[in-house]
Amino acid sequence: MHQRSVVRVGASLLVASLALTACGSRGEDDAGGGTSDKKVAKIGVIAPLSGDLSALGLGIQHSVELAAKQANDSNAIEGWTIEVAPKDDEAKPDVGKNAATALAADKDVVGVVGTLNSSVSQSVQPVLSSAKITQVSPANTNPALTQGANWKTGPARTYPGYFRTCTTDAIQGPFGARYLFEKAGIKKVATIHDKKAYGQGLVETFTEEFKAAGGQVVSAQTINPDDANYQAVISKVKPSAPEAVYYGGEYPQAGPLSQQMKAAGLNVPLMGGDGIFDPKYIELGGKTSTNDLATSVGAPTDTLETAKKFVADYNAAGYKDPYAAYGAYSFDAANAIIAALKESLKDADSAESARQATIDAMSKVQFDGVTGKVAFDQYGDTTSKVLTVYKVTGGKWAPVQTEDFAK
Amino acid sequence: MDQFFQQLINGLTLGSLYALIAVGYTVVYGIVQLINFAHGEVFMIGAFGALSTYLLLFDDQTQVWILPIMLIGAIAASVITAVLMERVAYRPLRNAPRLAPLITAIGISVFLQEAVRLFYDKIPGFPSAKQRIPFPQIDVVTGPAIQIGDVTIQRAGIFTMAALAVCSALLWYFVNRTRLGRGMQAVSQDPDTASLMGINVDRIIVVAFAMGAVLAAIAGVSQGLQNSNIDFRMGFLAGLKAFTAAVLGGIGNIQGAVVGGLVLGVVEAMAIEYIPGQFGGSSWKDVWAFVILILVLVFRPQGLLGARVVDRA
Q1: pTM for the complete prediction?
Q2: In which domain, by residue range, is A351 found?
Q3: Is residue B101 part of a domain?
Q4: Does residue A381 form part of some domain?
Q5: Which of A12, A221, B108, B187 is least surrounded, with the fewest CB atoms within 10 Å of its CB?
C-alpha cells in the first residue's frame, strides 16, 4: 500500500514544515554607523517588525530611533553615542527570547525598549534580567510582569530591571468594566479572549470588576488566534443575548470578529483593550465597526500639549510607518533609559559595566514625558494611571472619556 | 435544537470551503499520486487575484455584478499559478522517487507565501500583504445575515454552499460525461495503457491541476467574503484542513473529498457547541477535527467513501 505511506510521509513532512515556517528570523536592519571617537551605548528594541502586529512594532522602533537621534543631536550624554538595535520578535515568545539573547550578548547594549506583547515579555524578561539589562516596555499590560504571578494577593517584584510606561490590565480591565456598566448602561456582556497572556489577563480583570459592579457575564468564550472564521463562536454567544462583547486580544482578530459578529446579526458593540486600538481595526472591521469601543493607556496622544512636539518631530523625521498606538510610550520609554544612562554612563568605561548602574538609576528617573509624568513605582510600573475610552465614529477612533483611574 | 441547526449551518459553510479546496488535492493525487501541498497557496493566490482585480478595476464599488469578474480574476490567477507550478516544478520530477515532488511541493508552498508577503505591495496601488488585508464586501453576497426562524445564515455562507453545489455538479458532468474527463479517469487507472490508447497524459495532468485551481480560486473568494479579510498565510491552515478532508473522505475520490470536507466542518462547529469544560470551545476544535481523522484512519483506513486509486506500486 504505497499510496498510504505517501500520505503518511506527507503528513509528517507537513508538520515539519509547520515547525520550519515558525522559525527562521526575518530581515533585520541594524542601524549602523556611529562616530569614531565617541563610545557607543546601544538601546535594543524587541517588537514585532513583521507580521500582523508590525504596524505597532514599527511605530515603537521609529519612536525609539527618534529619541536616540534627539539625544545624540543635543549631545545628552557626554562622550557617548546612542545607537538603536532593533530586533524582530514576530510577536512570538520563542523568537523574542532569541532576540533578547542576541542583545544580551552584545556588549554595547545597556537597555531595551520592548516588547509589545506581554506573552513575549514573559520569555524575554529572564534573559535580559540575568544580563542586567534594563527593559522598559511601552505596551505590556499584564500585571504579573511587574508584580509577580500572585499580583492580586501578594504583589512581589520578580525582575528588578523591568519597567513599563503604560498602565496595566489590573487597571485597564476594570476601567473598561466601569465604563460599560456605569456610562454605557450595559448590564449583560459576553467575553471572548485569545488565550494569550494579554487577552486572558484583560478578560479576567474585566470580569471581576464587571461582576462586582453588579453586571452579568452571560457567556465566556475563547478563540484561536490563528483562525480567521469565528462563526461558530459567535453562534454560541448569540443566544445568551449579551448587550456588548468584551474581547481580550489584538486587532488582527478583533477586527474580523467584529465584522463577522455583525454580519451574523449580533448587533452589539465590541469592546477591547489597547490591543485593538489601531486604525487597522476599523479597516478590518469594516463599516459595521461603528460604535465599537476600546480602552487605551494614557490620554490621546494628539491632544496632549507635551505630545504635539513629539508628533511634529516624528512626522518631520520622515519615517515610513506611523507612530501607531505605542509611539509616544516608546519615545518616553527610550527617554527614561537615556535619562538613566546620563547617570550610569558618566563614569563608566564600557557600556557593559554600566548595566547594573542603569537599573539602579531607573527607579529615580522622573521627567515630564510626552504622555505625562514619567516615573516608576516600587514594582517598575508607571505611576500614571490615566486611561481613555475610544469609540469608532465615522471610520476613526474618537476619544470619549479620559480619566485618572487611581484607586 | 435551534443551536444544533445553527451550528450545522456554520459547519456546512466551513465544510463547503474545505470541500472546494479538498477536490484539488484529491484530483491531483488521483492522477499523479502527488500530494500537492502547495495547493493551499493556489487557494491563497486565488483570493489575492480576486482582490487585485477589484483594486485595479472597481475600487470602492460594491455592486453584485463585480463578483463574477472578481471570480474570473481569481480563477485566472490560480490556474496560471497551478499550471506554471506543474510545468516548472513537478513535470521534471515525474519519474523521480515519490519523496522528491513531495518536498518540492512544500518548497513551492513556502516560496509562494513569501513571494506574496514580500512583493505584493511592490505593485503600485496594492496594499502590503504583511498584514491582513480587508476583502471587498460585495452587495447581495455579504451584508446583514438572513434569518430563518432562529437560525441565522450569513450571505457569504450561502454563496459558499451554492458554489460547492454548482461546482460539484459541473465536476461530475465533466469527469463522467466529457472526453477529457473520461481521459482523466483512464489516466488515473493506468497511465501507461491510457497513453497507448492515444491519451495525452501530460495534457490530462495539466487539466487536473487547472481544475483543482478553479475550485480553489472560488474557495479563496468565498473565504474572503466570509471572513472579510485575507492574508498571505491563509492557504496554510486551509490547505492542511482540506488535505485532512481529502484523506477523511478517501484520497483520490472526488465525492469523498466533498463529503470529507463537510464532515470536517460540521465536526468543528459541533465540537465548539457541545463539548463542555476545559476541552471545549474554539481553541480545541482543531484537536477534535484531527481526532476524528485519526479514528477514521484507524477503523477505515481507506477513508469514508474509500480511496479510488489503483495501487500502482
Answers
A1: 0.81
A2: 39-167+302-376
A3: yes
A4: no
A5: A12
